[in-house]
Amino acid sequence: MEMTARMLEMTPGIRMRSDRALLACIDACFECAQVCTLCANACLQERMVAMLRQCIRLNLDCADVCDATGRVLSRVGPHGTRMARTMVEACAIACEECARECEQHADVHEHCRLCAEACRRCERACRALLAS
Amino acid sequence: MEMTARMLEMTPGIRMRSDRALLACIDACFECAQVCTLCANACLQERMVAMLRQCIRLNLDCADVCDATGRVLSRVGPHGTRMARTMVEACAIACEECARECEQHADVHEHCRLCAEACRRCERACRALLAS
Amino acid sequence: MEMTARMLEMTPGIRMRSDRALLACIDACFECAQVCTLCANACLQERMVAMLRQCIRLNLDCADVCDATGRVLSRVGPHGTRMARTMVEACAIACEECARECEQHADVHEHCRLCAEACRRCERACRALLAS
Amino acid sequence: MEMTARMLEMTPGIRMRSDRALLACIDACFECAQVCTLCANACLQERMVAMLRQCIRLNLDCADVCDATGRVLSRVGPHGTRMARTMVEACAIACEECARECEQHADVHEHCRLCAEACRRCERACRALLAS
What we know:
The structure is a homotetramer. In chain A, 63% of the residues are buried. Chain A is mainly α. Chain A has a single domain (16-131), classed as Substrate Binding Domain Of Dnak, Chain:A, Domain 2. The first copy, chain A, starts with a helix and ends with a helix. Chain A has five helices and no strands. Chain A is 77% helix and 0% strand. Chain A is elongated, with a radius of gyration of 15 Å. Chain A has helices at residues 2-9, 20-45, 53-74, 81-104, 110-131. Chain A binds chain B through residues 1, 3-4, 6-8, 10-14, 26, 30-31, 34-35, 37-39, 41-42, 45-47, 67, 70-71, 74-75, 77, 109-111, 114-115, 118, and chain B through 1, 3-4, 6-8, 10-14, 26, 30-31, 34-35, 37-39, 41-42, 45-47, 67, 70-71, 74-75, 77, 109-111, 114-115, 118. Chains A, B, C, D: This is Ferredoxin. Chains A, B, C, D: InterPro entries: Csp_YhjQ, YHJQ-like.
């Protein structure tokens, strides 16, 4: 959201105000955490919940990892680059694993299709940040 | 975001698909959690950090309460109304307390001005949900 | 844990160092959050997962509310009493709702029995803090 | 805590019931998250808060990463090994960075000394799990 950019712009000592990749990744992380939380709940309500066990677990994992990564990146600065980098790697993998599982249910469950899309967006945002 | 509406619409057994107040509150909670996390960090970087202690604490509290409220509301259904209701009350108070503190620094710190606005939006969304 | 007491004792400006009810509540909140996370996962792995939907949802809610309450209470001080109080009320209700559901499965699922016990401990710790 | 062992023992399909390294790591993660949250708050209350900025930031980062790692490990099973592994690596680095900073203030601030110890315990538990 535009808010992230405006808040980071006003943070003293942060020189990454023009860092599009960072901003995009923070927003993608928080969006993905929210969508995965909703997808876990939707899966839990499905009649065939027994088939969706792994999907629910990966949704919950992905929500937790994305949320922590979004928080860590919101505080990123001159310090902590090594840890933040490894968190972004973990986040890219969490999104990839969750997307792959959700994609298998995308034809049947529309919420899985939307969730897979959010995970792929976040995965791309993480990889773009790692490459920058 | 539109995503919240689309995800809840597809959740089996949820009859509140047309509940604008719920959707608006979920999004306001997650937005406010994110903005408060960024404001806590910006305050921490300010030269006059010693004057902003209470602001940082209320930012951290508000971020945690908004995040938990957003997650609980994402799972809301026929159950748990009493707990969800009390969480929304706690969230409205957390937002009000944080906004009141941030408003005192709004002239000096632009991030506090923006944060106070996000807190007031979330407070209103919580009160609208409680009234509905 | 003893750590909570030692950490709070060393926090400047906190006069509640002898507040047994606060310390007990912080620890009970974090313990309950952890046990509920484990119970949600154990329920998800059960063959009869479809019967445990509500239990899983209440586990996830209770984990989120307990975690946020534990964090808020860790920062409690001269400020914020009204919000902290409402959070502790929400936490007591979350624990009560989760315990009541888990108790229904306690004969069949040992993890639900243990989880109900942790929820009841946390509920009592919350009510003791509210009464103090 | 003993609870973690008992809960995981009762989780269907988990064969790691005898996995001491996993159990120790889950508990160390949740303990470290709690201690880092308390240390961030204690640092914020110190008269010399301006000297403790980086310490507070690393405390908050470490608390978020430890909490997410503890949750992910609580759900670990036949799936997701690659992501869980990278999270444990990120957690070991977060603990190491936070411990190193806290150790610089350990002579002056007893809460930093205790926090550094909790971080080093968690770092060791993470590395022991990665080695197993």
